[in-house]
Design a protein that fits this description.
One of its GO terms (molecular function) is acyltransferase activity, transferring groups other than amino-acyl groups. This protein has a single domain (3-138), classed as 3-Layer(aba) Sandwich (Aminopeptidase). Helices cover 27% and strands 34% of the residues. The protein has helices spanning 12-23, 29-37, 80-91, 106-114; strands at residues 2-6, 41-46, 49-60, 63-71, 96-102, 118-123, 132-138.
Length: 155
Amino acid sequence: MVLIRQATLQDLTKVCQIDAAVLGNNSRAQELSSNVTAGECFVACENAEIIGFIVMDHSFFKQCFIPLVIVHPQHQNRGIGADLITYVESVCTKDKLFTSTNLSNQPMQRLCQKLGFIQSGMIENLDPGDPEIIFYKPLQRKSDSDPYKTKSRKL
């Protein structure tokens, strides 16, 4: 069974190890440290071992944005990425969730489509010859639970 929780500083070494295993280097270690410190990183654990992580921040026009979903290569293709994204959907405080991936990253594109994300645009020139595709998903929020929402009624 996979448990997803907010990452702690004690998790940082393992998060960086998994990222380096997928990326091939540790160039994002400082950024990941900032994400963990800010409470923006969530880890997937199986049998008390971290097997993947996701970062959600508000860097994209102050909207909830997923810049990274990383699953250890030995645990890929088991639905862990989908579990991480679904978890982030549940803790996102906005009614929109965005993510992006390179045009060359077909597995992430398929995952986004499977989870109900809609292609929302493309950005050229970030990575030469490999445009970034932006995905968007509207989230259902329980508006009735908002104590500040004004309710109208006919008299």
